[in-house]
Amino acid sequence: MLSLSFLVITKAHLQSTELIGTIRDKVTQGPIAGVHVKLLIAGEEQLILSDERGHFNWPTKFDVSIDIEVSHVSYMGQQIKGLQVKTTSSQHILIELEMKAQSLGTFEVTTNTRQELIQPIAGKRFDPGEIGKVPGNRNDIARMAGNFAGVMPADIRRNDIIIRGNSPSGLLWRLGGGNIVNPNHFSSLGSTGGAVSAINPTMLGISKFYIGAFPGELGNLSSGAFDLQFRDGNTQKWKSSIALGGSSGLEANVEGPIANNQKSSILFGYRYSFLDAMDRLGLNLTGLSAQPQYQDFSYHLNLGSMKWGTLHAFGILGNAKIEFPDGKNRGISTSGLSINGIAFQYNPGKTKLLSSTVVINNLNSTYRKELRTDRETAALLYNLQEKEQKISWNTFFRQRIRPNSNLELGMQLDYTQVNFKNGKLLPSSIWEDQRDAAAGSILWQSYLQWEYNWTPKLKSTTCVRSMYWDWNQHWVWEPRLNFLWRPGKGHQVALAYAMQHQALASPIAFASIQSNTSLQWPNKMLPLLESQTWALDYLSLSKQNWNIKLSTYHQFLNRAAIEQSPTHYSSLNLGNQFRYTARDSLQGKGKGFNQGIELSIEKRFSDKYYSTLAVTLMDSKYRGSDGLLRNTAFNNRFILNLTIGKEWKNEKRRVWSLGLHTIWAGGAYYIPIDLERSKLNADEVLDFKNAYQNHFPNVFRMDVRIGYRTAPKKGNWGLESYIDFLNTTAHINPLAVRYDIKTQKIYTEHQIRFMPDVNIRMSF
Hints:
By secondary structure, the protein is mainly beta. Helices cover 3% and strands 57% of the residues. The longest helix has 7 residues, at 274-280. It starts with a strand and ends with a strand.
């Protein structure tokens, strides 16, 4: 397979390279004026102050690395090192400061600084600029997460985020402060991943990726959360861009101010499948008969600050289609996505914040199997339709009671309506509707969180949450507690406990049986999945841009869905399929656990190089209704991620770079095939008695990137290009075992052996 991204042309009116920053109070999200911002650029120091809106900007030289140190008399300082500003594009950065636990007796600006590059316990702060650093991530934010400690790298087919041995269905997606459905193309009901991301990385601002223990605002999850934020558009001038790319597709982006006096802006982007466009022109770049067709449109309107607060509108619209020819048969898979949200924030006082977000989600997916009778007509053999409509409302009130004490009260409501319909053509040529059902439910969540700084070195966060799901009429309580201790400058230790619950995936929770008289819901009373997690973290931040994080955790899972008769089945193994296989008459008595140790060593960009090493040792087990302790489908035992990058710059404003990304991980456990029974049935039959007893060989992949960028001293354009060699060593990595009906043999399906990926970006 060959993936080509040819040329990206960005045109802007008098665009210049600059650093644009916003400084906010972490509790009230209000702007902080008068913050001392010290910039260290190429050995030279620059000192500026944030304005009344908390903004600062600084024109920079071509392709520089910037260290930022901010300080304020009333707030804890912060350091951010190794921030890169490339070619002629602007770098946007958001800095959130915490108020000091004790006020100072004199107006002395201290140097009590710390980095917030890795969030304690909760995961890490995600800079969208990282997407372009690591070779092989294909400009996909979900695949980028696979480079973090505790996360299994995605395979070539899907971008599911598998965290600490949990099912990817345990992930919560959020956008703009609201809960959203699966933001991926070729997704299906109940899953959280897909084949292609519908998230345009050029739209993203600073986001947060959470694993393990979670803050109070995150609920209805069991493994992790991706809290995404779209960045603001340019408030000073209009910019536009067009792009051609194999990974991101044909692309057009526009951003600019709406009303300068209110600092309002608009930003939107459109993408269309490049491979499909080339195929329509008669150029099949992959050599495959099935070409993915997809398009998406993303937007973000920042209406600025007004007397009654700030208002944002955002959304993602997309659809996708792919056809799989198989002789006279043809499979057609489609998916559609619609996410539209409004976020409102109001500061009723200097120490208060009221925030509310409403998101309307729509997700639909279909699968059709046809028998072609001639070139123009086809007979329908099978048809599946799934729809999910969700209205999500999230609101919270936050108040700083004292400089060292913050209180937050929040409520969330998710109204969900699902529709299932499928049927098939019987051998007697009679069409049979197998399922036609619809159901709706409301999930209520509320929480109270108290954050208290006992001393400048000791901080605690206490939270109590509640959840009520009217579908099964279950009400649960969730206590959460964590302590953060800073024994010395550059060191911190965190201990956390969290209980969380999650509603079962829609295809399981809303499984139905049509009787002669009525429609029945055999899984309706299944309980919420319960998860309890203990975690201990140690984080060390050095002056030389090195960050070291060591984590250990134990997670106990209870009330998983299992079958009533003795089998291997458990809902803990679901979530990374293109389609869910619905099962009915389940019981919520399944158990499981995940435990492990994680080490992250990160060298932020400085001295023209950067590196990241993430090592995970883990164990993931479960028990089905047969009572046997088995490996989960996501027990990889160990994961190693290594990324190294080096740059060379000359006096002619040219930069060459070399990057290396290596993945080494344990092979996944799988269900073997019963060869003899498969021969007798003339179809694949799995050996469930030996489910997850054996695993595939270890996975190894090395991706290499060679890059080049430049910009002239005169003019407002720049060039950035690179070529990725995916799986450079052409290592054979298994994907699945299959049964060949014709040869009556079992064979192993492998991932792609080798794939080059060329990208060229030109900015004006």
